[in-house]
Design a protein that fits this description.
Number of helices: 14
Strand order of the largest sheet: 6-8-7-9-11-10
Number of strands: 16
Largest sheet: 6 strands, antiparallel
Order of helices and strands: EEEHEHHHEEHEEEHEEEHHHHEEHEEHHH
Structural class: alpha+beta
Helix content: 25-40%
Radius of gyration: 22 Å
């Protein structure tokens, strides 16, 4: 059987060919055009995949390195979305090349995977009726797509979501043939273990933005009777242009299934945050500013009680010149304050892995291990605490989730941090703003 190949495009340049010469082992052959445009050794595609004149391929033994597969798998969805795409295409869920051929024209970041001989285009957007949009979102995890529509866009993760295009008239469109999507919509999980998850995710992102910490734009909307969070894609420009990014798993050459760092891995290979800080900061225009931005993001996730801040929920933006900066915060919900069982930090922070055990000195010492001075780190952590405290006092929580602030105040008081003003409950709670689905973003 002939080896399947896909052309890998980035910023309008075919940078590589992707193939699967043996089952479950992928190979990248970079093109002369890529080497001419970006230079040998450039990490413009991925921090873990420098451009090379020699092929880059997965090792025979997975533990020896599967950087190519790690990067590619990091672009594909998990769970229901992956099963649905595979079923629609008549593929096995393990058929990475087949799935990528199906949805690789529209991925996270600026990378595109196209059949050999094809070139990137603008694609086209199919306008959706209000009823079609409501059905698509409200029925998840069942995919009730409009007649003739198939999944043609890919975004990693296990949560049920859909990628759509905001239309000039305020409606929504379905991206086809590689058209760039502009928004991600995640409905409230059905029967989820954490009630108010998407509502408090929107709250946490609002807290971050109010505290001047870069975070994805978000709002809440109703689709039929089901509430959802509508997120503006930060890897798309104002005119829909693709901006490149990759998550920390991809940047470290780690399989998506390894998104949670263990203490054993940290001891064996060194802490992930330290490895990322060193690899990315060395390619930032201002390395110290990158380290401080990372420290602020990690601090925010700790103090807001985000018990799911794993390596796929942090990303770096990679510019055309190969320089990097930290991506805005996303997928940040106060899970620990919703349910104290959800308290893992996702990463090892100064040897600790629990939100309720990480203190200011742990954050300072962690940042110091990256090369940030302790004085600068302590100032940055203190500033985040102060700004988040002020934001928590003015950004109302959704009705029914008032315990989030109560639990936050308890932890902050126990930590001797200056806590926000405790909540005074009213019978009906504060009003919650729910934006119309057709409103502009």
């Amino acid at each position: 059987m002939a080896t399947r190949t896909l052309a890998v495009w980035l910023h309008g340049i075919q940078v590589a060919r992707l193939s699967e010469p043996t089952p479950f082992r992928l190979r990248l052959d970079f093109t002369d055009d890529a080497l001419d445009a970006f230079g040998e050794g450039s990490r413009v595609l991925s921090l873990a995949l420098p451009l090379s004149r020699r092929p880059v391929h997965d090792a025979k033994i997975r533990s020896s390195g599967h950087q190519v597969s790690a990067f590619v798998e990091g672009l594909l969805p998990e769970g229901n979305a992956r099963r649905h795409i595979a079923s629609q295409a008549g593929l096995l869920v393990t058929d990475t090349m087949g799935l990528l051929e199906r949805v690789g024209a529209e991925c996270a970041g600026a990378v595109q995977f196209l059949p050999e001989g094809a070139v990137p285009g603008n694609g086209h957007v199919r306008a959706l009726s209000d009823r079609e949009v409501d059905s698509i979102v409200a029925d998840l995890p069942t995919y009730h797509l409009p007649e003739g529509a198939t999944p043609q866009a890919s975004l990693a993760g296990i949560q049920d979501k859909v990628l759509l295009v905001a239309m000039p008239d305020g409606g929504w469109g379905w991206p086809e043939s590689g058209a760039p999507s502009t928004h991600m919509i995640k409905p409230e999980p059905l029967g989820g273990a954490l009630p108010h998850l998407i509502q408090t995710e929107d709250w946490a992102l609002r807290i971050a933005r109010h505290a001047s910490i870069p975070a994805a734009e978000s709002r809440l909307a109703k689709f039929e009777l089901r509430e959802a969070i509508v997120l503006t894609r930060y890897d798309r420009g104002a005119d829909g242009e693709r901006l490149h990014q990759e998550d920390f798993c991809q940047a470290l050459g780690l399989d998506p299934q390894a998104k949670y760092e263990s203490t054993a891995e940290s001891e064996r290979h060194g802490p992930r945050l330290k490895r990322i800080a060193r690899a990315a900061a060395s390619r930032a225009h201002d390395p110290d500013a990158f380290r401080v931005a990372l420290l602020e993001a990690v601090t925010f996730n700790v103090v807001i009680g985000n018990g799911d801040a794993h390596s796929k929920n942090y990303s770096v933006m990679i510019n055309r010149d190969g320089s990097v900066r930290l991506a805005p915060i996303y997928d940040a919900a106060p899970t620990y304050y919703l349910d104290s069982r959800y308290k893992g930090t996702g990463h090892v922070i100064n040897g600790k892995t629990s939100v309720d055990s990480v203190d200011v000195e742990d954050l300072v010492d962690e940042a110091a291990s990256w090369g940030t001075s302790k004085r600068r780190a302590r100032t940055a952590v203190g500033s985040v605490l102060e700004r988040v405290r002020a934001a928590v006092d003015v950004i109302p929580l959704p009705v029914g989730a008032e315990q989030v602030k109560d639990n936050l105040v308890q932890l902050w008081t126990r930590r001797s941090w200056q806590a926000p003003t405790p909540t005074t409950h009213r019978q009906n709670g504060p009003p919650r703003q729910v934006h119309e689905v057709r409103s502009s973003s």
